[in-house]
Amino acid sequence: MISASQVKELRESTGAGMMDCKTALSECNGDMAKATDWLREKGFAKANKKSSRIAAEGLANIFIDGNKAVILEVNSETDFVSKNAEFVEMIETIGQAILNSEAKTVEEALEIPVEEGTINDLIVAKTAKIGEKLSLRRIAVVTKGEDENFGSYLHMGGKIAVLTVIKGGDEAIAKDVAMQAAAMKPQYVFKEDVPEEVVNREKEVLKNQAMEEGKPADIAEKMVAGRINKFFKEICLTLQAFIKDGDVDVETYLKNNNSSLVSMTRFEVGEGMEKREENFAEEVMNQIKGN
User: Fold this and answer.
1) Which of 57, 123, 166, 287 is most buried, taking the most CB atoms under 10 A from its CB?
2) Distance of alpha carbon 215 from the chain centroid
3) HSE (side-chain half, CA atoms, 13 Å) at 28
4) What is the DSSP letter of 58?
5) Closest to 69 (Cα-Cα) out of 184, 128, 152, 11
6) DSSP-assigned states of every residue in 128-179
7) Alpha-helical regions (H) of the chain
8) Contact partners, residue 117, CB within 8 Å, separation at least 6
9) How far apart are CA 97 and CA 63, in angstroms?
């Protein structure tokens, strides 16, 4: 028995019609992953639609000192708070404190001493004052060598933060790659990073798509080879067409500038978190009634 909630979840993750989603789930005995592939093979699903809803608010930021950098995300309940001067100042305090510590994880970072006690004490105090739940969601501490360069980029005031490390080149080139990652949202950095099971699953989907188009199995197999390369070019940062010069990919752009990519870290605020359902008018009315 296929439930309405299953149909709703599949519809939101694929962008396909409700009846198509119901049919897909019925054909695949309720298996969400198989139903998603079935829709793609039939051409009903919108390609590369993200299955999780991005929703939690807050800001991401990057802090750099010499050969060390910290990228972090701090969440709030509403976007209004992300524009609050105290919230922004709190993130600055947290970032600098982590940068000047040996912390590598969120748990370690929360114990770092600051003027208010610890970072955790600071967050609790600001939560009480601002009136929304605030949290340090994630951090990454990145180091580089003397012959390497950091590239940092904040998009939309900190809704997306990207930190890159390149060998050779300069900060401007490293920032170009960071901007690329912010705009094009690669799932992986290098082709070698893509798990074998992801590649095999995509090949199966591509083969079935070709056969749905009426191609014989042997021709479909040959078509997969070309289409899988397109798949890699979409999801791998180094293979993506460079946004400032579509005639070359990112890897070639770096080579042309005597450099190569070492790493990339990308934080998008609220990524993978469930959206808070809000009724702004109702919220305002409740506040008025409470006064």
Assistant:
1) 166
2) 36
3) 20
4) E
5) 152
6) HHHSS--EEEEEEEEE--TTEEEEEEEETTTTEEEEEEEEES-HHHHHHHHH
7) 4-14, 18-27, 32-42, 79-82, 85-99, 106-110, 119-130, 171-184, 196-212, 217-235, 250-256, 280-290
8) none
9) 10
Q: What is the pTM of this model?
A: 0.73
Residue 71, both tokens: 């990228």
How long, in residues, is the chain? 291
Which residue(s) pair with 4 in the sheet? Answer: none
> Residue 152 and residue 161: Cα distance in Å, rounded?
7
Domains of the chain, with CATH numbers?
1-53 (1.10.8.10), 57-179+263-268 (3.30.479.20)
83: nearest Cα among 132, 152, 139: 132
Phi, psi of 271 (to 5 degrees): -55, 125
Distance CA 219, CA 181 (A): 35
As a dihedral over the C-alpha atoms of residue 43, residue 49, residue 53, residue 55, rounded to 10 degrees, the angle is: -140
Separation of CA 164 from chain center: 14
From first to last of its 291 residues, what are the pLDDT tens digits of the chain? 889 889 888 877 776 777 888 899 999 999 999 998 888 777 665 433 433 333 379 999 999 999 999 999 999 988 888 889 999 999 999 999 999 999 999 999 999 999 989 999 999 888 878 888 899 999 999 999 999 999 999 999 999 999 999 999 999 999 999 999 999 999 999 999 999 999 999 999 998 888 888 888 788 888 888 889 999 999 999 999 999 999 999 999 999 999 999 999 999 999 877 655 544 455 455 555 544
